[in-house]
Amino acid sequence: MTDSALTRPPPSLLIEPIVRAALEEDLGRAGDITSALTIPDGTRAAARIVARKPGVVAGLNCAEIAFRLVDPGLRVTLQARDGDAVAAGVALAAIEGDARAILTGERVALNFLGHLCGVATATAALVQAVAGTDARIVCTRKTLPGLRTLQKYAVRCGGGFNHRFGLDDAVLVKDNHIAAAGGVGPALSRLRAGLGHMVKIAVEVDTLEQLSEVLELGVDGVLLDNMTPAQLKQAVAMNADVFGSRATLEASGNVTLATVRAIAESGVDYISAGAITHSAPNLDLGLDF
């Protein structure tokens, strides 16, 4: 299991509106007409959410909130914790109460839980692949609209770390910024004239020549885009030679289970992977009465 401090979920105040919106989408204008008409009023039931495949848990609080928004009288007992690695067949939660309410909340609860477990599981696979190196796996802003807070939390549950959360909490100067600004020098000059002292500056480069220019200008971090492991090793050496490793180096692009170990062994500090949020396979879960 990952560090409990890293797997502390976001406040319910932030999560509840997201889950509520999903329930409203599913309930539509008339509610759950199937459950209302097929199940006698007052029928009680007990159910479990079970992992059909092995994976890493994330999003239990979303499932719990979904059921309790449908019916505050439902009793939800969590049988695992976010960050746990679980085998197939393990129960993650038990739900007891009104049968209609359980079935009404089922799909939304499983949608959140399955997706976030998938993100955590995909992250954990990359983290395991770079074990023994100093590289950290980080996420990106390539998140599903409206789910960034939850997806970035799931990355932490998988042992990864978070990149910036939005455009407002860190500076990343990319190629289009440089082109529109008239060069990296003018871009950095304007940033330093206007930024608060707590905001870090990183610049994206895709050649070693660009890296040399950026290092001479001095920045907090450099994103090395789509470089080979050999080029990444050269970048690490250049950074150490010029600035004693003052700038943090982040590798990005073509990060897969097949490539990530070689990337990590180049000596970079961070490896960012958009796929762990935008393309993570859903973890197969089921709700069984």
Describe the strand arrangement of the main beta sheet, using strand numbers.
6-11-10-9-8-7
What share of the residues does DSSP label as strand, in percent? 15-25%
How does the helix and strand content classify structurally?
A: alpha/beta
H/E element string?
Answer: HHEEHEEEHEHEHHEHEHEHEHE
The CATH architecture of the largest domain comes to Alpha-Beta Barrel
**What is the radius of gyration computed over CA atoms, rounded to a whole number of angstroms?**
23 Å
Describe this structure in words.
This protein has two domains: 12-128 and 281-288, Quinolinate phosphoribosyl transferase, N-terminal domain (Aldehyde Oxidoreductase, domain 3); 129-278, TIM Barrel. It has eleven helices and twelve strands. The chain has helices spanning 12-27, 33-38, 60-70, 99-129, 148-157, 175-181, 184-194, 208-217, 229-243, 260-264, 275-278; strands at 44-51, 55-56, 75-78, 85-86, 91-98, 136-138, 171-173, 201-205, 221-225, 248-252, 270-272, 285-288. Helix 8 links the parallel strand 8 and strand 9 (221-225). The chain is elongated. The mean pLDDT is 95.
Which features characterize this protein?
alpha/beta; Aldehyde Oxidoreductase, domain 3; TIM Barrel; six-stranded parallel beta sheet; four-stranded antiparallel beta sheet; 18% strand
